[in-house]
């Protein structure tokens, strides 16, 4: 029985959209011919993924969904296996070590990262405001490099990308899509109401400080995740941050946030006063109690479309993206099986 | 009133400048002049990457080496966490030292001086399939391109002088100076006739590869990758008795290839430049007093040279010891001589 062409539309071209598209296309095409299109109203360098510093690090406490820890582990292992490829720098991937400072117990992902250990008393002397911390080597994956690389891989495979604002799932279904992959991030609510999804507004300052070789993340449980100063060196600039404002949709940079980030980061790392500011960005983390990664069958009159939702990755999208892409591919595989079964002639004929 | 003691420091590499600064901080009532034919960026120190990992001197007792390293590490740590860090070119860097086979000494004498020293885990070693054993730690990088000018500035601020001049004979410094501190490195071979010091040629590459944030060093010390503020240093070579300062293109290719084997992403490094330095190699550091006598004249000398590949790692400890020796000489000077002829 010849498999017909499946028309797949991916909505969203951030790290989730592009990696899910690639994972599914690599796994199933051409054994199952796919006609895949990506629609998005924002492409790199204007996506949320481009604002993120790109450090692999889950939140300190486990999510309510234990699968998220697995997805994070799968993503780390997948990226680490590519660290020695000659293309690593082109992909925007490198190793980076650094410090997490605060008062908390060891995170569950201590065995995922490399060389996790508690900080020694002499190291704590470097950070006089803190009483406890740890050191580990993790991975840095920069959206500004990774997204173009993913785009190239997709285009090589014949996937087309279009700048288009999708107004509804129905419009895409009526356009002929058999499967819709919804990777619309913080804007998913525009396609389908989701009371659990909120923007977790973040603002960052980009500086030139090439002497900084370690990330430094501080945590204060009373303020909530990422509302405490953090410093994350990238390949060209260093990202300073520490703002996570639930419900704030203001896309403009705030002077108040700038001053707060600058002051607190300089206190944490005094050498920053020598750093030149070269950029400032605002992004909305797609905050949700847990990632929405599931199927949904939508009906429009007599027709229907299979939707795979893959959004709501909060401040750890890059951290779990590949594990989620693989799970989305698993769900896609199930859809294919079901379609095959439904096309098979009944056994008694 | 006591006369000002006039001190000449010969040599303006890391040893000369740090010794001069140390003396100016510790010894009251002295004037200091640093005299050298070369200043930054043309000294041997400028070629060194400046990573604080000690070199072992066969003829210097280990406790002494450890003391010098500890004093240097503490001194630079204070700078690294101060407002001066960027001007002085001192910052923390973490990384790995990997060994093809388990070394006899798994924990070196300096393990408790650097930060967070531990053995590498199995998972970390997986990245280095040709290597069986490794150490992970955080240490300091003291970048001479910034550090030497910073020392020069501090010296001038305290009234010290810098003089560009080639000294062929220490007696040239008489009678203008009371004490001479000889920090002439490899130059001592000619300047004081020390045949125990000889060059160990080192060639390195400076490459743009800003995504590399961790150092990697082969335990043999021959191959290393040291990320810095403006470039990554890739090394190296150890060519005994080789005086040539011209880069060897074949060697550059070979160094690059060895480094890429440790860190394949380096294939995408660009803007690669070659540098050569001659390590002032000696079985032990010469750190001692000497009186030179000629006719009726005497010249009080403190030698501080022969630091080989470990100069930056021990420079401050060495400077402190040289300063103590200078103070010994000053005490001698201030005791009135029993007879005018010696």
From TrEMBL, chain A:
Source superkingdom: Eukaryota
FAD dependent oxidoreductase domain residues: 7-331
Subcellular location: Cytoplasm, Cytosol; Peroxisome matrix; Presynaptic active zone; Secreted
Pfam families, alphabetized: DAO
Molecular function in Gene Ontology: D-amino-acid oxidase activity; FAD binding
Keyword Secreted attributed: yes
Keywords associated with the record: Cell projection, Cytoplasm, FAD, Flavoprotein, Oxidoreductase, Peroxisome, Phosphoprotein, S-nitrosylation, Secreted, Synapse
Gene Ontology BP, a term: D-alanine catabolic process
Family from the record: Belongs to the DAMOX/DASOX family.
Protein name per Swiss-Prot or TrEMBL: D-amino-acid oxidase
Organism: Myodes glareolus
TrEMBL record, chain B:
Function: Selectively catalyzes the oxidative deamination of acidic amino acids. Suppresses the level of D-aspartate in the brain, an amino acid that can act as an agonist for glutamate receptors. Protects the organism from the toxicity of D-amino acids. May also function in the intestine.
Domain called FAD dependent oxidoreductase: residue spans: 6-324
Domain of life, source organism: Eukaryota
E.C. no: 1.4.3.1
Protein name as catalogued: D-aspartate oxidase
UniProt cross-references to InterPro entries, sorted A to Z: D-amino_acid_oxidase_CS (IPR006181), DAO (IPR023209), FAD-dep_OxRdtase (IPR006076)
Keyword Cell membrane: no
Binding site for FAD: 44-45
Subcellular location: Cytoplasm, Cytosol; Peroxisome matrix
GO process annotations (BP): D-amino acid catabolic process; L-aspartate catabolic process
Cofactor(s) the protein requires to work: FAD
Main location: cytoplasm
Record-linked Pfam families: DAO
Enzyme class label: oxidoreductase
Protein's organism: Myodes glareolus
Catalytic activity: D-aspartate + O2 + H2O = oxaloacetate + H2O2 + NH4(+); D-glutamate + O2 + H2O = 2-oxoglutarate + H2O2 + NH4(+)
Listed GO CC annotations: cytosol; peroxisomal matrix
Residues noted as binding D-dopa in the record, renumbered to the chain: 224, 279
PROSITE patterns tied to this protein: DAO (PS00677)
Keywords (A to Z) from UniProt: Cytoplasm, FAD, Flavoprotein, Oxidoreductase, Peroxisome
Family listed: Belongs to the DAMOX/DASOX family.
GO MF: D-aspartate oxidase activity; FAD binding
